[in-house]
Write a structure and sequence with these properties.
Length: about 270
């Protein structure tokens, strides 16, 4: 039997959030083959409970060949190092291995804001991604190259408090929409002065509270589905390297390494 080419392989994209877990089946070019399927994030959001939820959602979609997972924390070589909006038990958890053993499919895991960036960026200049949801996520790309593990939300923003403390879901509920939007406007100015970005992309569930016409010209609101569509980047090979390429960005790539002998499919 002939081996499937990368253009024929399907990818189950998974977006793990503090509130919900979503999956979407993608074809080899990164196009959606199904509607999104979702379930609430379990409480407590321990590794076992989250993995069980992913397995449940995976059973609701057609057959797939591999998984691409966006995780809300720092990920290194498939191991989760932080998960501030899930559970402390994620520290040092081998998520790639656990999912591979359960679902018997190859798995790649990356930070969820990085994955969303892959689904949104154009691949030119300095592009910054800020995801606004249960927590706040961030990703930075320079001419399409990912700067890994940027944990901007946990840096000071105002009055000794962090971006996450002032822009996360709890802050939104406490402050209300108007004050939260005013804080976000000040954050945009500070981020522009800090990174001199070409474009800032605002995503995540709470970006739905924003209107594009109220944004500066260099700020774009990106659909939340980018956090799933960007998953194809984790499996798009660049011949002879360990890079992966963003599907919608000319020349965009990320130094996400091959792990545990899983080879990128050849075009």
């Amino acid at each position: 039997m002939a081996q499937a080419t990368s253009s024929e392989l399907t990818t189950l994209a998974v977006d793990i959030g503090g509130t919900g877990i979503k999956v979407l089946l993608l074809d080899g070019a990164g196009n959606a083959l199904t509607e999104r399927v979702s379930a609430p994030t379990p409480k407590p959001a321990t590794p076992g409970a989250v993995i069980d939820t992913i397995a449940f959602l995976a059973s609701k979609v057609p057959r797939f060949d591999r998984l691409a997972v966006g995780f809300p924390g720092v990920v290194r070589r498939g191991v989760t190092l932080t998960a501030p909006n899930l559970d402390q038990s994620w520290k040092g958890f081998e998520l790639e291995v656990a999912l591979e053993q359960l679902l018997l499919k190859p798995v790649r895991v990356a930070n969820d804001a990085d994955v969303q960036g892959f689904g949104a960026i154009e691949g030119t200049g300095v592009e910054l991604v800020l995801t606004l949801g249960t927590g706040v996520g961030s990703a930075l790309f320079v001419d399409g190259i990912l700067v890994p593990n940027l944990e901007l939300p946990h840096h000071p923003f105002e009055e000794g408090r962090t971006y996450e403390q002032l822009l996360g879901q709890a802050a939104l509920q406490a402050a209300g929409d108007t004050l939260w939007k005013e804080r976000l406007s000040r954050a945009i100015v500070l981020l522009r002065n800090t990174f001199n970005f070409t474009t800032l992309y605002l995503g995540g569930g709470n970006s739905r509270k924003l209107a594009q016409q109220t944004m500066p010209d260099d700020v774009k609101i990106t659909p939340n589905i980018a956090g799933l569509l960007g998953g194809i980047a984790l499996w798009t090979g660049v011949d002879g390297t360990s890079l992966v390429r963003a599907p919608h960005a000319h020349g965009a790539s990320s130094p996400i390494e091959r792990t545990r002998g899983i080879e990128l499919p050849k075009d």
